[in-house]
Amino acid sequence: MKKLLLTITILLGLQGAAQQNPTMDNYLFNPITISPAYAGHQDGQVQSIYDAQWVGLKGAPRTGAIYYDHLTPNRFGFNLGIIDDQVGPMTTQSIGVTTAYHLQIADEVYFATGVRYTLTHTEVDITDEFYVDKIDQAIYDIDGPWIQNVDLSGAVYNNQWYFGATMKNMVKQEMYNNNFTSRVAHIFGGYKHELNDEWMLSSSFLLNFSANAPLDPNFHLFFEYKDNLGGGINFSPKDEAGMFFKLNVFEGWQLFYQYNYPLSDLVYVTKQSHVLGIGIDLKSSQQTLVSPGYFL
Fold first, then answer.
1. Quick count: other Cβ atoms within 10 Å of Cβ 218?
2. Sign of CA dihedral 256, 261, 266, 268
3. CB 212 within 8 Å of CB 61
4. What are the φ and ψ backbone dihedral angles of 7, each rounded to 5 degrees?
């Protein structure tokens, strides 16, 4: 039992220090993970994402997710997301339904507000022989309750810049009688600049504020060629640095890849994390809304 508790404590402690949300790295490919106000921006697109953190470390976080995004003609956005996240012996499934409304407040300027309702279920398989000795009669599986939560977000944007904020976990839900879901806040913004007729430069920042955790700032630069091929760098002081790439394989299909190198003490046990994403447009290439966010 002591080995189990030590393993869970280490893995959850590392995850809390290095990444507050299992989908945080994915937002470069799918920004709705940090802002419900983005619902509808990727109208008609299905996305599948796999995040493998800290490769080489037993029990390290592994996250799989799939999303569908839709925008109505009267500018109501809808997004459905299903996420499976595993950290050591803990497996969490989440279902999120997001809605947003995009109000035009000036010429080509929009104000978007979004809300996400999430149901989450966690199981702990503590009979795994890697974590505990199976002859211990005190060992059993934990099948946690379904808990619910709400995220709120707002953003202002046009076709060159955007700025917004998000508050996650507005409802402080009790979990296993002695743990609570932590509240997370995001402040984000970005700007897109045309270098010439073929090349575009995008810059952005993301500030993450989490309960009982230090501020997590993130900065990004992204170069894109004719909306077909792009690459960039991301940097988070004392956390990680990396690079990411986007490729339009053919019309309606996008491929995304991100590599991260730890800048924390994790470097002594692992030197890489990977994110792979695929996007499929189910509608025509005509866009209702234009945003400078990555890969919209």
1. 21
2. positive
3. no
4. -65, -50
Its pTM surpasses 0.85: no
- pLDDT tens per residue, range 225-249: 988 899 999 999 988 999 999 999 8
Percentages helix, strand, coil for the chain (3-state, rounded to 5) are: 10, 55, 35
- CA 76 vs CA 46, 79, 102: distances in Å: 18, 10, 7
- pLDDT tens digit sequence for 32-66: 999 999 999 889 999 999 999 888 888 888 999 99
Distances (CA, A) of 139 to 111, 130, 131, 143, 179: 52, 13, 11, 13, 20
Residues in Cβ contact with 200 at an 8 Å cutoff, skipping those fewer than 6 apart? 192, 193, 194, 223, 224, 225, 227
CB atoms closer than 10 angstroms to residue 290: 14
**3-class state of residue 107 by DSSP:** coil
Residue 123 reports pLDDT greater than 80:
yes
Domain boundaries, the chain: 2-281
Place of tokens 């299909």: 253
Given a contact cutoff of 8 angstroms between Cβ atoms, the answer to whether 38 and 114 are in contact is yes
Which CATH architecture describes the domain 2-281? Answer: Beta Barrel (2.40)
